[in-house]
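Saturday, quiet lab. Running sequence design on the structure tokens for the scaffold JK sent over.
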């Protein structure tokens, strides 16, 4: 397209229960620092503790703004000079006895915490995250220099109305950190591509590798363009995945194939 290009890197971290959260933070920070030259770096959902390690959520809870993960990721973003979507953490608010949330952290290249997003749709069907954490109540976007990010997390992928809200808020790149189980890998692939196609937006979907609380993870982080083309896909293990995004492709796709203008809002009731 000839416009500004955005280099995006997804860090598909392995979560190993034999590794402490502190050691994993140090390792993740080193991986972030190694991405100097990227524009945007993305980590997975709940990588400090493991998305299925519900028994550890309360123990590993932290403050979103100045907890150990925020401090490590702020410094890494600043050292690398990148926008860093640091995945999500178990946030407790108010500290120290408040409610738990699954909260994503977005840092600017100067290390400042720019935006947070509390996961709206909690997975578990009356177990795990669904009962231990409160849901977020706000659709969240973040304006970067060359694109608007729309923030979602893992199970949110199954709820297209959230992504329509992000679209209407101006998002052209949808960022989805996840801890997706291997047994539903086929769903992951279909849903990531569907969210890209129906919203004519890039989707950066970053999952974990390894096993959380006995649940093997899918890995297979993906970068999908506004036409639904998979630009890059990881395997099942720990991997660094990089792709170049063209924000102008979002505009041209929506202009050349203008399906979004045919949306019918306020559909009539079922007769």
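Result came back. Writing it out in full:
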């Amino acid at each position: 397209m000839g416009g500004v290009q955005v280099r995006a890197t997804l860090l598909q971290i392995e979560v190993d229960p034999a590794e402490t959260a502190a050691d994993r933070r140090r390792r993740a920070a080193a991986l972030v620092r190694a991405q100097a030259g990227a524009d945007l770096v993305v980590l997975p959902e709940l990588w400090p503790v493991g998305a299925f390690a519900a028994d550890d959520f309360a123990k590993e809870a932290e403050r979103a703004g100045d907890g150990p993960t925020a401090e490590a990721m702020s410094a890494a973003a600043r050292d690398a000079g990148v926008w860093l979507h640091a995945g999500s953490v178990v946030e407790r608010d108010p500290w120290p006895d408040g409610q738990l949330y699954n909260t994503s952290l977005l840092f600017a290249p100067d290390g400042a915490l720019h935006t947070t997003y509390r996961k709206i749709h909690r997975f578990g069907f009356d177990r795990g995250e669904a009962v231990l954490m409160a849901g977020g109540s706000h659709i969240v976007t973040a304006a970067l220099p060359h694109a608007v990010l729309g923030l979602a997390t893992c199970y949110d992928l199954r709820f297209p109305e959230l992504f329509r809200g992000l679209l209407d808020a101006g998002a052209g790149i949808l960022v989805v950190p996840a801890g997706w189980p291997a047994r539903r890998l086929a769903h992951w692939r279909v849903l990531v591509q569907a969210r890209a196609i129906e919203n004519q937006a890039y989707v950066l979907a970053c999952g974990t590798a390894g096993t959380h609380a006995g649940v093997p993870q899918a890995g297979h982080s993906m970068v999908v363009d506004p036409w639904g083309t998979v630009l890059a896909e990881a395997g099942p293990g720990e991997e660094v995945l990089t792709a170049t995004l063209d924000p102008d492709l979002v505009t041209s796709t929506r202009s050349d194939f203008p399906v979004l203008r045919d949306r019918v809002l306020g559909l009539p009731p079922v007769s």
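Notes for JK: The chain has one domain: 6-254. Residues 122 and 130 are 5 Å apart (CA to CA). Ask whether to fix the surface positions before the next round.
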